[in-house]
Design a protein that fits this description.
The complex is a heterodimer of chains A (283) and B (266).
Chain A (H helix, E strand, L loop, with lengths): L16 H24 L3 H29 L9 H21 L2 H7 L6 H5 L4 H29 L7 H4 L2 H21 L5 H17 L14 H5 L2 H14 L5 H31 L1
Helix pairs in contact in A: 1-6, 2-3, 2-6, 3-6, 3-8, 3-9, 3-11, 6-8, 6-12, 8-11, 8-12, 11-12
Chain B lengths: L15 H14 L2 H5 L3 H18 L2 E2 L5 E2 L1 H32 L2 H6 L5 H29 L11 H20 L5 H17 L11 H9 L1 H14 L4 H29 L2
Antiparallel strand pairs in B: 1-2
Helix pairs in contact in B: 1-6, 3-4, 4-6, 4-7, 4-8, 4-10, 6-7, 6-11, 7-10, 7-11, 10-11
The chains are: A mainly alpha (283), B mainly alpha (266).
């Protein structure tokens, strides 16, 4: 009984204000992440449906359906069945596409519409904790979504590298989502109007989805389009995920490049986010 | 002022123009780049899948049974899909916002406008966008050398027909939805339709019962209709596809009008 009991508020049901403030300062990122995740519960049904049905639909339609055409055409792609080739890429690109929805309007409404960000900042939470907390919550969601996708891949026999190695597609998918989501969050935090999001969807997200070697190797396109893949988080994530799921030869130096590219994007994006959130919430 | 048809007198004042004019003014004051650039999406799909996938797939069987280039195979399907997407976007999110948040329809129905005017006005706007995109896309196809028949010109009215069906029906469905969460379920109906409706590959690879399921969906009829028009090959099924959308339009319009009347003119 040597431990000191925390001081309680007069009601006796909650810790004292000062004690709460200390906790908020210490773990504010998690506090805010929890808030965002609880907010997502309103959308629990669509989110769950999406997490399960989206991989199923894509695997059946593109892996099996389009795969049948590829079998009749060139036979196999990069030495494997089309289903095996396309599955890890679909994981990465669907997760990155979903993150682009999660990091646009919800971020802007935190500042603009429902102004949910302002409450926590009136408490001992720092703007940086709000920014990182939002990011953390979104990443946790896509960690879960990637996990479900991986299970679907296993069920389709689309991850021949075995479950121990192919499990890595889950963190890889999340890393790709971070590489795109963090800069997007930072950009969304600077905006006051939503129409840019439609332009981003149309001129950034869609081309990234279509030209990042998801459905066919980059080399199947003319050379002057390859750069779209090189600057695209989807391509870097996909290359890593292909190694994880079926042992595509990537090579250590290239693997390092892919990893570094995604980590750098995520780090720069987060830094920019923290600065923007601080500026807007403290002004 | 009535419409002249007694049955419609309570539903319409015959002043659809007012609703269309209001929407046209909004477009003029908003970001027109957003509106105009809408046709870029199917073009991107066409370039990526047509060029990239085409290299892996080679030629596929066209509506006549003769082999055609993969890009020429998916192009009409992408036009049908973009007609669907455009119409659904305009008649769901746009309508939801005006119905539940800005209460625009409530205001409109306080005037002499009837529910049929409002419904038709909104749908005509969706069709205008559809027309722009169809013309843009057809232009791109022509430049890429994927148009081989004069019949392809009919893909423009066909795109409008497809859009009309989806817009009328989408607005009816939207009138039943009350929260954003339910709106998400609309995307949930569109994705499988896009992926399975013979857009990117023939449906024959599936067991027969799945094929019947796909053939019950509207997008498949749109895709097949466009594909037949793209090469100028018609048979009895062409009429089935056309009638499907005519029926969908009539049903959707009737449902939307009745719903708007129920919601506002109690």
């Amino acid at each position: 009984m040597s431990e000191v009991e925390p001081a309680l508020a007069p009601s006796g049901r909650a810790p004292d204000h000062a004690e709460m403030a200390v906790r908020a300062r210490r773990s504010g990122v998690w506090f805010y992440a929890e808030t965002v995740l609880r907010g997502m519960r309103a959308f629990a049904l669509p989110i769950a449906l999406y997490a399960v049905a989206q991989p199923l639909l894509y695997m059946i339609a593109l892996g099996v359906g389009l795969g049948a055409l590829v079998d009749r055409g060139v036979g196999s792609v990069a030495g494997v069945d089309y289903l095996v080739f396309v599955a890890p890429a679909l994981l990465v690109s669907t997760v990155v596409m979903s993150v682009s929805a999660e990091m646009t309007f919800p971020v802007m409404s935190g500042f603009k519409w429902n102004r949910l960000y302002y409450g926590p900042v009136a408490s001992p939470l720092e703007p940086s904790q709000v920014a990182l907390g939002h990011f953390t919550a979104v990443m946790l969601r896509f960690l879960a979504q990637g996990f479900v996708f991986w299970l679907v891949m296993l069920a389709f026999g689309a991850a021949p590298a075995g479950w121990a190695q192919s499990f890595l597609v889950v963190p890889i998918g999340m890393l790709a989502a971070a590489g795109f989501g963090a800069p997007l969050q930072a950009y969304a935090a600077t905006l006051d109007d939503g129409f840019q999001f439609s332009l981003i969807q149309r001129f950034v997200v869609m081309p990234m989805f279509l030209f990042s070697g998801t459905f066919f190797p980059l080399s199947a396109m003319p050379g002057y389009l390859h750069w779209i893949g090189w600057i695209s988080p989807v391509w870097h994530g996909t290359e890593l995920a292909r190694w994880a799921s079926y042992g595509a030869s990537v090579g250590l130096p290239m693997a390092a490049v892919h990893l570094l590219f995604l980590l750098t994007l995520a780090a720069l994006g987060l830094r920019w986010s923290v600065r923007t959130y601080t500026r807007r919430l403290r002004s | 002022m009535g419409t002249g048809i007694p049955l419609l007198a309570s539903l319409s004042s015959g002043n659809v123009r007012a609703v269309v004019e209001r929407n046209a003014r909004v477009i003029r004051n908003q970001n027109w780049i957003l509106l105009v650039s809408g046709f870029v999406e199917p073009v991107l799909y066409l370039l990526a899948m047509g060029l990239g996938m085409g290299a892996l797939v080679g030629a596929v069987e066209g509506p006549r049974g003769a082999p055609i280039e993969y890009a020429a195979y998916i192009a009409p399907a992408l036009l049908a899909t973009s007609a669907m997407n455009g119409a659904i976007y305009d008649s769901t999110w746009n309508v939801f916002f005006k119905l539940r948040l800005s209460k625009l329809y409530q205001a409109m129905l306080q005037t002499s406008l009837g529910p049929l005017d409002v419904a038709l006005g909104e749908i005509l706007m969706a069709l205008f966008r559809g027309l722009l995109y169809a013309l843009g896309f057809l232009g791109v196809l022509t430049v890429l050398g994927l148009v081989t028949s004069w019949w392809a010109v009919l893909m423009v009215p066909a795109a409008l027909l497809v859009a009309f069906g989806f817009a009328a029906f989408g607005m009816a469905v939207t009138s039943y939805l009350t929260t954003f969460q339910q709106m998400d379920l609309i995307n949930f109906a569109l994705l499988p339709m896009f992926l399975f409706s013979a857009t990117l590959y023939p449906i024959e690879i599936y067991p027969e019962w799945i094929q019947w399921l796909i053939m019950a969906m509207p997008l498949w009829h749109g895709v097949e209709l466009m594909r037949q028009l793209s090469v100028g090959h018609f048979d009895a099924s062409t009429w089935v596809h056309v009638l499907y959308f005519v029926g969908m339009t009539v049903l959707g319009l009737a449902l939307t009008t009745l719903r708007l009347r129920r919601l506002f003119l109690r």
